[in-house]
Amino acid sequence: MAGSTQRPRVVALKLILTVLVPALVLAVLLGKSVSSTAGEQARLQAQRHADLAARALGERRLA
Predict the structure, then answer these.
(1) DSSP code, position 6
(2) Residue 2: helix, strand or coil by DSSP?
């Protein structure tokens, strides 16, 4: 054989293993970090609202 030609199936498998799988893993990891950040932001916002509500109730009791 003069040239090393690979079957298209082998080339496709190599492409999937070297490009698509790491990209999918990276996307999943980024998605988790984004969702955990969004969850943290939602928790902080809920805590802020709770603090404001408690402060408003406390001021009403003093008045």
Answers:
(1) P
(2) coil
- For 17, other C-beta atoms within 10 Å of its C-beta total 10
How far, CA to CA in Å, does 44 sit from each of 13, 17, 38, 41?
A: 45, 40, 10, 5
One-letter amino acid of 7:
R
CA distance 28 to 22: 10
Per-residue confidence (pLDDT) for residue 1, from 0 to 100? 47
Cα(44)–Cα(37) distance, rounded to whole angstroms? 11
- In angstroms, the CA 5 to CA 13 distance is 15
Is pTM, for the whole model, over 0.85? no
